[in-house]
Each structure stands twice: as C-alpha cells, then as structure tokens.
C-alpha cells in the first residue's frame, strides 16, 4: 500500500477490501504488536483486524481527520460480540478529537478482533492510521 494516502479514494484505494475482503470477523487480517496500518474507510465500510493477545492488554490507537468524518472502533470476540466477560474494552480519548485508543480492560490471553468502521450516515471517505499494541 502506498505511504502517500492523501489522494486515496473509495473504493479504488481500499486495499483491505480489494481481494483481501476484511469486512467481517471471519476474514480479519492478522496484525502484529507494534504494527501500523494505513487504511481508508468508505461509507458503511468495516475493516477487521486480529491481534494475538498473549496475555497482554491489546489496544489500537486510531488517528484520522475529525473534520472529514468520524471513525468508530471496538474490540470483539470471534463471534462478533462486544463487552462480554472476556472482551470488555475501554475507549481512551474521544473519537471527535481525531485520535483515540481502544484497549481491552482485562488480560484474557485470547485473540481479540478490532473492528474499525465509519458510520453509514457520514457519506464520506475517511483515511485512518491504526497502531496495534500489546500493553501490560
């Protein structure tokens, strides 16, 4: 994927969906701790990523332009459930600020999935950077 994403458009430059199709929890792309993903969210789109937790607290920090559209992110289990016993999460910061972090609240040792999405009402294309980490 090009590092200069300022000219990206949907759906042409949505490389996560071009042949990869990470629109569901079943087709989540596996990422490593410390990995940075640059992506584009089209209206109504979802990008799913999987990070092996290894008994740490997995988190993702999302950065985007809040003047264009908002971005949502949640941590979910393999069935797509959020905030169950093993996958409770907290959001640090506010999505409206343009940078926020979503972190698991407990050390489960399970493999969580991160869902990054744009609300369908936005009708906008949003570029984002996601940094995945494991914290103690």
Give a nutshell description of this structure:
The chain is built from no helices and nine strands. By secondary structure, it is an all-beta fold. The chain has one domain: Jelly Rolls (Sandwich).
Describe what this molecule looks like in 3D.
This protein has one domain: Jelly Rolls, CATH 2.60.120.380. It contains no helices and nine strands. 0% of the residues lie in helices and 39% in strands. By secondary structure, it is an all-beta fold. The mean pLDDT is 76.
Any key phrases for this structure?
136 residues; Jelly Rolls; four-stranded mixed beta sheet; mainly beta
Summarize the SSE layout with pairings.
Layout: E1 29-31, E2 36-41, E3 46-51, E4 57-64, E5 72-76, E6 89-92, E7 99-104, E8 113-117, E9 126-135
Parallel strand pairs: 1-3
Antiparallel strand pairs: 2-9, 3-8, 4-7, 4-9, 5-8, 6-7
């Amino acid at each position: 994927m090009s590092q200069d994403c300022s000219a990206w458009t949907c759906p042409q430059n949505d490389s996560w969906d071009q042949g990869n199709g990470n629109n569901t929890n079943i087709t989540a792309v596996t990422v490593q701790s410390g990995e940075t993903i640059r992506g584009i969210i089209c209206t109504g789109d979802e990008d799913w990523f999987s990070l092996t937790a290894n008994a740490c607290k997995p988190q993702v920090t999302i950065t985007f332009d809040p003047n264009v559209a908002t971005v949502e992110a949640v941590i979910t289990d393999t069935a797509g459930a959020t905030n169950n016993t093993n996958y409770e999460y907290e959001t640090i910061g506010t999505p409206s600020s343009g940078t926020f972090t979503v972190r698991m609240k407990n050390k489960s040792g399970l493999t969580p999935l991160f869902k990054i999405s744009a609300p369908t009402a936005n009708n906008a294309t949003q570029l984002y950077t996601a940094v995945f980490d494991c914290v103690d």
